[in-house]
């Protein structure tokens, strides 16, 4: 039985000493409780590295709290609710407090269980503040939110105006990979320790349902590793981040991306820390304004916007399916050997290797295929939640339902992000060694993306007819002399994809 009057129920995405319920807590005033839910571990087939990262980051953090003098109770229980009831039965006079959970389901559960909740401050924008902004808007345009954030936080501003006179430097960013030789940033190496080894051994001993490769040195599992990754990015990759943030190449799986999202999403880093150090690096004068602005937009704009929309839209949002897409998840998402398409085989293999690819393969390769094949948004969402090391409910629900699969009918993005093989060919080197030609719409060697892109537009022509942002794409259908043959080929392609034979 603990002697403290309050016990902090620690969650796996609140691993920061200076925020949430741990802010201001001392070993004299608070005890710590962590409940490992058997249901969470066993009802989904997780990527091994995602499970390993969550469990090892947790164990390292709990070990640090013990060293600080906290009484730490670690419980393995059938589920979280059962664990809380068991803890209360042994400590009936202790108040349990927690930071507001990051998912609708868990927030509702904690309210029903009578957990005392502390506002979630793991973002730069509180949930009420975002709701106030969203309620004042005619349409929820991210650019408008981002500009308001720049002003509110006084980031990259000169008085009331943006530095350089422009809010957005997209036109200067997002280049394809260079055609000639290019030196991509070296990968940051994270060595394993005894806690890491014990966690991996435990996962295998318990035979938890997992897929994917064993952990290598890609991901660290400590606060120190998170800070090391941030420093590595700022010193080796920040300078060309903006230029190549959309580039895809077989020469580098990370390109110039920061690889900070896993650490941010479990709390090992706070966005204010990342923002402060990025701005300090920019002020030294070696980082182009366009690149700095592009990175800042991800931190104070897109990340905050997605979290805000998750709470603003509510829990029913995850079930939306405006395009009536019901195709089962294609086998290639579960097994990279189930496709000959180089872009897909490369990226699914990268996911198998390290549970991560950057945002353009996620949106314009993986999600694009799910969109134009009519894959169930809910099945694809479940796969993304299981497969990515930085996945969280608040991240994946708006990104999949809204941004990627247009299943919300346009609440988040005003047009679907559908594209043919031409986009992938432009922004990558995948097509050079692929058996399929991105310029062809029909024939056995036609790129499935190109075939299915036009078929998707044809299938949804009436639905998108009133969308002015789709006018140019829809007009293109009228110029296709081979549309009947293309639609016949699309049926073949969909069948071959379902069999894992294309």
Please tell me about this protein's structure.
This protein has 502 residues and is α/β, with parallel strands linked by helices. The chain has 3 domains: 6-118, HUPs (Rossmann fold, 3-Layer(aba) Sandwich), CATH 3.40.50.620; 127-185 and 237-313, Serine Threonine Protein Phosphatase 5, Tetratricopeptide repeat, CATH 1.25.40; 319-499, Orthogonal Bundle (DNA Cyclobutane Dipyrimidine Photolyase, subunit A, domain 3), CATH 1.10.579. The chain has helices at 38-42, 48-68, 80-90, 104-112, 127-135, 142-153, 194-205, 223-236, 261-266, 271-283, 289-313, 342-354, 359-373, 377-387, 393-404, 421-427, 448-459, 461-464, 471-477, 483-499; strands spanning 6-9, 30-37, 46-47, 72-77, 95-99, 116-118, 157-158, 161-162, 210-211. Helix 10 (271-283) packs antiparallel against helix 11, helix 13 (359-373) packs across helix 17 (448-459) and helix 14 (377-387) packs across helix 15 (393-404).
Portion in beta strands = 5-15%
Structure annotation, total helices: 20
Structural category:
alpha/beta
Helix-strand sequence: EEHEHEHEHEHHEEHEHHHHHHHHHHHHH
Query: How many structural domains in the coordinates?
Result: 3
Q: Architecture of the largest domain, according to CATH?
A: Orthogonal Bundle
Broad CATH class of the largest domain: Mainly Alpha
The spatial strand order of the largest sheet comes to 4-2-1-5-6
Radius of gyration: 23 Å
For the terminal residues, how far apart are their CA atoms? 60 Å
* Main pleated sheet: 5 strands, parallel
Mean of residue pLDDT values: 96
In the predicted model, the low-confidence regions spanning at least 5 consecutive residues are: none
- Principal-axes geometry comes out as globular
Helix content range of the residues, please? 40-55%
């Amino acid at each position: 039985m603990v002697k403290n009057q309050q016990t902090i129920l620690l969650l796996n995405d609140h691993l920061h000493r200076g925020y949430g319920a741990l802010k201001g807590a001392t070993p004299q005033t608070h005890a710590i409780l962590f409940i490992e839910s058997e249901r969470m571990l066993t009802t989904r087939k997780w990527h091994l590295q995602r499970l390993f990262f969550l469990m090892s980051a947790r164990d390292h953090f709990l070990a640090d709290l013990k060293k600080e003098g906290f009484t730490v109770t670690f419980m393995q229980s059938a589920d979280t609710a059962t664990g809380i009831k068991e803890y209360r039965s042994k400590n009936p006079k202790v108040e349990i407090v927690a930071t507001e959970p990051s998912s609708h389901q868990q927030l509702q559960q904690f309210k029903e269980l009578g957990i005392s909740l502390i506002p979630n401050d793991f973002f730069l924008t509180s949930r009420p503040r975002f709701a106030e902004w969203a309620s004042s808007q005619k349409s929820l345009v991210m650019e408008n939110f981002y500009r308001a954030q720049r002003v509110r936080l006084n980031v990259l501003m000169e008085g009331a105006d943006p530095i350089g006179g422009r809010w957005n430097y997209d036109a200067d960013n997002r280049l394809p990979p260079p055609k000639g030789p290019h030196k991509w940033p070296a990968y940051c190496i994270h060595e394993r320790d005894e806690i890491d080894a014990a966690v991996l051994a435990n996962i295998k001993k318990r035979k938890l349902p997992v897929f994917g490769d064993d952990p290598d040195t890609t991901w660290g599992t400590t606060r120190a590793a998170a800070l090391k990754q941030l420093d590595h990015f700022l010193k080796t990759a920040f300078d060309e981040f903006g230029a190549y943030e959309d580039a895809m190449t077989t020469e580098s799986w990370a390109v110039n991306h920061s690889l900070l999202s896993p650490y941010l999403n479990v709390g090992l880093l706070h966005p204010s820390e990342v923002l402060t150090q990025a701005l300090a690096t920019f002020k030294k004068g070696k980082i182009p304004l366009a690149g700095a602005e592009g990175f800042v937009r991800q931190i104070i704009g897109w990340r905050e916007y997605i979290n805000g929309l998750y709470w603003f839209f509510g829990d029913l949002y995850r079930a939306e399916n405006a395009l009536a897409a019901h195709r089962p998840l294609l086998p290639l998402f579960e097994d990279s050997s189930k496709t000959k398409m180089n872009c897909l085989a490369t990226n699914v293999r990268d996911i198998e290797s390290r549970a991560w690819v950057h945002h353009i393969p996620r949106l314009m390769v993986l999600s694009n295929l799910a969109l134009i094949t009519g894959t169930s948004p809910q099945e694809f969402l479940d796969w993304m939640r299981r497969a990515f090391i930085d996945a969280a409910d608040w991240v994946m629900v708006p990104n999949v339902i809204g941004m990627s699969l247009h299943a919300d009918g346009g609440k988040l993005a005003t047009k679907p992000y559908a594209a043919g093989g031409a986009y992938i060919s432009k922004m990558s080197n995948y097509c050079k060694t692929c058996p399929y030609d991105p310029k062809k719409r029909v024939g056995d060697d036609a790129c499935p993306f190109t075939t299915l892109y036009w078929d998707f537009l044809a299938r949804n022509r009436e639905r998108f007819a009133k969308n002015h942002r789709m006018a140019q794409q829809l007009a293109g259908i009228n110029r296709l002399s081979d549309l009947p043959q293309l639609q016949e080929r699309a049926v073949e392609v969909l069948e071959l994809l379902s069999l894992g034979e294309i």
